Amino acid sequence: VQAATMRLNQNILLLGKKVVLVPYTSEHVPRYHEWMKSEELRRLTASEPLTLEQEYTMQRSWREDADKCTFIVLDAEKWQTQPGTSEESCMAGDVNLFLTDLGDPSLGEIEVMIAEPSCRGQGLGTEAVLMMMLYGVTRLGLTKFEAKIGQGNEPSIRMFQKLHFEQVAVSSVFQEVTLRLMMSELERQWLLEKTSHVQEKPYREGASEPC
């Protein structure tokens, strides 16, 4: 049941003001692969360099993974003002949810990457995280979120703190900070207000069109 729940997003598009979230498909892999050639991005995401073929294999495994939910973040302005343009040309980054604690299915680890330099510092990451949290709360039944961020990644730490996450641990071994948000009724209402504009639409691979 949980696996089917995590794969719900294969047919879902989430439309926000600044970003559009779509499932990670093979169409997105070449651009994603180009991003991950950056040493800085690999360091920030603790990722190993992969060949393009390995990246395609990874995309397929993520899609089938019962413990992971991935959306590609599209720049909504590009996507809406250039009808017929490919999703790949609108890609800004990705946002992920992991069910890392087998004993607690209500806890989701969240991470976001705005990889496209021209898209940074404009609030795309913030909206992507809010939309993913909304999805986690309303579709996956999550009530707690964690974010693990490299100690040197100050912009990301500040962003999560603005979203009501509080620091709960620091690992000098992994050089990362763990932040957590407990979804009380008050926090849930705040989240629903922050995302009241978000629309959920059906998604068909290779055929998402602005509406």
Mean pLDDT: 88
Specify Rg, calculated over alpha carbons: 16 Å
The CA-CA distance between the termini, in Å, is 32 Å
Catalogue the unreliable spans. none
Specify the biggest β-sheet.
9 strands, mixed
Helix-strand topology string: HEEHHHEHEEHEHEEHE
Count the beta strands: 9
* Beta-strand percentage range: 25-35%
How many helix segments?
8
Strand ordering within the main sheet: 7-8-6-5-4-3-2-1-9
Helix content: 25-40%
Give the overall shape: globular
Specify the structural class: alpha+beta
**Subunit organisation of the chains:** single chain
Organism: Moschus moschiferus (Siberian musk deer)
Keywords: Acyltransferase, Transferase
Protein name: Alpha/beta-tubulin-N-acetyltransferase 9
Enzyme class: transferase
Concise account of the structure shown:
By secondary structure, the protein is an alpha+beta fold. Helices cover 35% and strands 27% of the residues.
Structure characterization notes:
It is a single chain. 35% of the residues lie in helices and 27% in strands. The protein has helices at residues 2-6, 29-35, 39-45, 52-64, 76-81, 124-139, 154-162, 185-194, and strands at residues 12-15, 19-23, 68-75, 91-98, 107-114, 144-150, 166-171, 176-182, 199-202. The protein has 211 residues and is of the alpha+beta class. The model has no long low-confidence stretch (mean pLDDT 88). Helix 2 packs across helix 4 (52-64) and helix 6 (124-139) crosses helix 8 (185-194). It has 8 helices and 9 strands. Strand 4 (91-98) and strand 5 form a beta hairpin. A 9-stranded mixed sheet has the order 7-8-6-5-4-3-2-1-9, sandwiched between helices.
